[in-house]
Write a structure and sequence with these properties.
7-stranded parallel β-sheet, TIM Barrel, globular, 9 strands, single chain, alpha/beta, binds coproporphyrinogen III, two-stranded antiparallel sheet
């Protein structure tokens, strides 16, 4: 039994005593306790060792008091399991030495047995659930097929992911074949996360906003829709497609219980587009956590008032920035917890 099920009740549309709160990328470099483990172990070693993943997942629950834990892992463990080499290069980010360029490269990519290739994630989830002991729910996650294709084709981070787009626009059949393979892997992966104990799953489409509304449907949403359909009877799902606010109505129609939004759309407009039957999550500008604490408090209150009571999970509009002081992150969380809607 969960002692704190505020997020689950909010996703079901129930009125709660206060707005729940967590932060994207809450398990990470702004926490000195994370940096200690980062000194000792490599990134994927931290992901692949259930005891380490468990400890890192629980750190923000203990230190900043969020209303949910999110599994410490990465969206790029899926391309790894599908057969591509993925490295994390210090101060540069993800690097895939042999990205997918043409049909010959697709031979190296497979829909894997997730128990065999990602079993360490499920072991971590079981351990986390035991350690959390019902304090807060655990959010599992995966990257959206489009965002994973971006890395699998581009081979590294990019502001525009132009090579990934060119791949889609010039070899659409190949692109759809790859997107379907990622989708099939992701469905099996998320179902196994739920079986291991994840209470909620979030789909991260960090690069969804790079596509036009039509291309977002073609290369992203039709695959997310399959994932949500496969999961929605089991646990609530949250879609976070950064920058793709134009499609909030279509995203709500997938049956997802939650939709993440970034800070570039007004909460009132997001609500108008998404309709009243879905919970919105967001949308504090992560850079604002570098403001003085009184400014953070004031801005968080403005955000909460704009969303109004119910059907809102307070969060950042994207991941927390590494140089945020811990007391600023705590001020964000505490302001939400103390706020009461008039
Ligand atoms: O949110 C959490 O606390 C859970 C863990 C989590 C990580 N990555 C850990 C991580 C989650 C949910 C992710 C998702 C992820 N990974 C996304 C989607 C969300 C987003 O931010 O847009 C993307 C695009 C990635 C790919 C990725 N992984 C990048 C671009 C980077 C490097 C950039 C960066 O922030 O350092 C990573 C590495 C990564 N993933 C770190 C962490 C804590 C930093 C690793 C380190 O240097 O210690």
């Amino acid at each position: 039994m969960l002692q704190n099920d505020l997020i689950l009740r909010t996703l079901r549309g129930e009125q709660t005593e206060r707005t729940p709160v967590w932060m994207m990328r809450q398990a990470g470099r702004y926490l000195p306790q994370y940096m200690v483990l980062r000194e000792k172990y490599g990134f994927f070693e931290r992901c692949q060792t259930p005891e380490l993943a468990c400890e890192i997942t629980i750190q923000p629950v203990d230190i900043v008091g969020v209303d949910a834990a999110i599994l410490f892992s990465d969206i790029l463990v899926v391309p790894q399991a599908m057969g591509l080499e993925v490295q994390l290069v210090e101060s540069q980010g993800p690097y895939l030495p042999d990205p997918v360029k043409n049909f010959k490269d697709l031979v190296r990519v497979r829909v894997p047995d997730v128990q065999e290739t990602l079993g360490y994630v499920f072991e971590a989830i079981k351990l986390i659930k035991k350690e959390l002991n019902g304090r807060v729910p655990l959010i599992g996650f995966a990257g959206a097929p489009w965002t994973l294709l971006c890395y699998m084709v581009q081979g590294k981070g990019s502001k525009t992911f132009d090579q990934a787009k060119v791949f889609c626009y010039t070899q659409p059949e190949l692109a759809h074949q790859l997107l379907q393979m990622i989708t099939d892997t992701t469905i099996a992966y998320l179902k196994a996360q739920v079986k291991a104990g994840a209470d909620i799953v979030q789909i991260f489409d960090s690069w969804g906003g790079l596509l036009s509304p039509d291309d977002f449907e073609t290369y992203s949403l039709q695959y997310i829709r399959q994932i949500v359909a496969a999961l929605k009877e089991e646990v609530p799902t949250i879609i976070f497609a950064k920058g793709a606010w134009h499609s909030l109505e279509e995203m709500a129609a997938t049956g997802a219980q939650g939709l993440g939004i970034d800070w570039c759309i007004k909460p009132q407009l997001a609500r108008q587009i998404a309709g009243n039957n879905v919970t919105l999550q967001g949308n504090f500008d992560p850079a604002k956590l570098l403001s003085p604490i009184p400014v953070i408090k004031k801005e968080v209150e403005t955000m909460l008032a704009a969303f109004g009571p119910g059907r809102h999970i307070a969060n950042l509009g994207h991941g927390i920035i590494p140089n945020v002081p811990v007391d600023h992150a705590r001020a964000f969380v505490d302001t939400v917890k103390e706020y009461r809607h008039k």
